[in-house]
Hints:
The complex is a heterotrimer of chains A (156), B (435) and C (257).
Chain A lengths: L6 H20 L4 E3 L3 H5 E3 L1 H7 L8 H5 L3 H8 L8 H5 L18 H8 L41
Antiparallel strand pairs in A: 1-2
Chain B lengths: L15 E5 L11 H24 L7 H25 L8 H4 L9 H34 L5 H13 L8 H34 L12 H33 L19 H40 L4 H11 L1 H21 L5 H23 L11 E5 L8 H5 L2 H21 L12
Antiparallel strand pairs in B: 1-2
Helix pairs in contact in B: 1-2, 1-6, 1-7, 1-11, 2-4, 2-13, 4-5, 4-6, 6-7, 7-8, 7-11, 8-10, 8-11, 10-11
Chain C lengths: L1 H25 L2 H6 L6 E6 L8 H9 L12 E8 L4 E4 L12 E3 L5 E3 L5 E9 L8 H4 L6 E3 L5 E3 L9 H5 L6 E2 L6 E2 L5 H4 L6 H5 L5 E5 L6 H8 L15 E4 L7
Parallel strand pairs in C: 1-12
Antiparallel strand pairs in C: 1-11, 2-3, 2-6, 4-5, 7-8, 9-10
Amino acid sequence: xxxxxxxxxxxxxxxxxxxxxxxxxxxxxxxxxxxxxxxxxxxxxxxxxxxxxxxxxxxxxxxxxxxxxxxxxxxxxxxxxxxxxxxxxxxxxxxxxxxxxxxxxxxxxxxxxxxxxxxxxxxxxxxxxxxxxxxxxxxxxxxxxxxxxxxxxxxx
Amino acid sequence: xxxxxxxxxxxxxxxxxxxxxxxxxxxxxxxxxxxxxxxxxxxxxxxxxxxxxxxxxxxxxxxxxxxxxxxxxxxxxxxxxxxxxxxxxxxxxxxxxxxxxxxxxxxxxxxxxxxxxxxxxxxxxxxxxxxxxxxxxxxxxxxxxxxxxxxxxxxxxxxxxxxxxxxxxxxxxxxxxxxxxxxxxxxxxxxxxxxxxxxxxxxxxxxxxxxxxxxxxxxxxxxxxxxxxxxxxxxxxxxxxxxxxxxxxxxxxxxxxxxxxxxxxxxxxxxxxxxxxxxxxxxxxxxxxxxxxxxxxxxxxxxxxxxxxxxxxxxxxxxxxxxxxxxxxxxxxxxxxxxxxxxxxxxxxxxxxxxxxxxxxxxxxxxxxxxxxxxxxxxxxxxxxxxxxxxxxxxxxxxxxxxxxxxxxxxxxxxxxxxxxxxxxxxxxxxxxxx
Amino acid sequence: xxxxxxxxxxxxxxxxxxxxxxxxxxxxxxxxxxxxxxxxxxxxxxxxxxxxxxxxxxxxxxxxxxxxxxxxxxxxxxxxxxxxxxxxxxxxxxxxxxxxxxxxxxxxxxxxxxxxxxxxxxxxxxxxxxxxxxxxxxxxxxxxxxxxxxxxxxxxxxxxxxxxxxxxxxxxxxxxxxxxxxxxxxxxxxxxxxxxxxxxxxxxxxxxxxxxxxxxxxxxxxxxxxxxxxxxxxxxxxxxxxxxxxxxxxxxxxxxx
Lengths: 156, 435, 257
């Protein structure tokens, strides 16, 4: 076998060396098999912190209570006590700095999520008082008659 | 706040129609480009195996088509990458497969196997054409008035020679041995190149249609089938064009400098080679077709027999929704009909070429029925999805994953072959008796 | 003689060094610790309590910036209606983003199905989300290491590294993954990692008015989620795939897909 047959191999080795060199520069230094091993934990470690830094949008009702204690107590005394403020008022974000005001969602669609009557025997849905959205004051906002913080008409 | 807002179309939504109970995130994510990817790599692997039948096993009768198969295989290689680049949501990050391969994933094998295969085919072509490269080099250097094309060709040959100009009998003998070694080494790599494509699907336990250990073997067999069929069709067509040109005293697809005089424009000579090579190759096509169909039938029968939880949904896809695509197009027109055509006595080159066209169609439908068929039913087993391939594109995505992208992938190998053929003439006739 | 001795000693030294060095590979202290950390997130879904209001889906999309008008979601609620003659009808319009407000069951191309109340024998809702499996098949099939499992068991996607091949989406038996329409990488529920790692609650569990969802530490025996999982009859989804999911279901029924 003459020596020239090895030339293509040298070309290949050269190309592979270039790829490995490029890899040293391109791949982030914290990339590797972390705690969960190679199969399930092969990743760039810094990404875990990236996800932890993702901005939160919602606070929770206790945060709202710090200023709006009157609204908080009123809903807590009603059958709607288990609903989070932000479910109807949108995420707090950086309120009161930004946004200054939170929208009040008065849309009918919000209420019929729970209150459109569906026959669902093996589910908690059956225990919720409901109406037929097509016939019950169609087109009107529910809050024109029902105060969401005190929805029962008898109590009003 | 009104809930009905203008609709943002997500990837897959434009070409997926859902029926009955389908989960919200389910779409046909792997569409035409993922059908084309195993198809193209199958053609690459199959063409290479055909070429190796000559170089390794010394089937003398396949000498001419073997050379063509080798060069065409090399032209197909870059095209094998195209469907992936067109499919990726982040195509510029494609090199990540080489940078941080996660070897527990079958797709990570792509980078390494593909490169290895490219190196092997490249090396083999170098050994096969080295004498030609050096001869062309010397011829062009000696030429007094070089055109711009000549100068470019000279530069290319100078680089390709890798600094070696020895074409003594001893050197050529070494070349032949090395070529045989490369061809032999390339066969398992070609099998791996396509076996892993089958493994990509066969190992997905979440997909009831794809999950079977038979998948890698089915893919390899149908890859070889498609590769051989493609070489038959292309060789036949190219020779038809050369015959047409020869009748008019012209020489197509072979640089004049290498065409050995009258033989290149001798109609009878070309016809006899075309006839002989195509008929010989069809015999090998039949063998691999038998293997491929046996495995596919085995898989189908097992599924129906064991009838596991997913069978109800699969049955509806296989025997109802996709019945025409599977039994008429793939098995009927794409398998049974060409099988008959190749078995009937007094085979002609034209009949073999026609049968091969049908085989290519059949293998394409097989890829379609696996990839798209696997997404035709929902994970719930109580819903279905239909893939409507975008024909007229209205944005980049519907072009890439529609007929436009498919045509681009289909045409490119021929464009590349046209140019590679100028450097490595595929139709050159090897005067040396031994391989 | 000297050369032979030298070679023999070299051979012994090399093989000895190889064995001891390879022993260091066998027992990786980091992996030992990871197999028994003090924190392992788990989720509990109570399908008895779910009323199909869809507040969880809306909260999740808002919190995690998944466009409301895009038909993909990190979590969803399915409705099951079972009739007296044993048929099951299920739907999940827009992932229940707007809740379930009509008795008409959405069968997509097959239209809307009206099941009369008198025919219904059983009907319930099933919320679904990423199970953050201990043996996640989606992580196994990622070709570039863009998705992974953290030491505390949360499966995440690195948006800067994902190439968007979609193998993880095909690999998930639960259908929880999708392509994010803005970022153009794979995406899925993160257990609101940015909230729970700071002592907060997941957006979906917090928004649920009926307590159908809760997150907890499966390694803490005093955690309410852990206590329920250990003492009550809970189910998991698609156990046959060996994924070891960490979402547990109360009231799981045979009809649940």
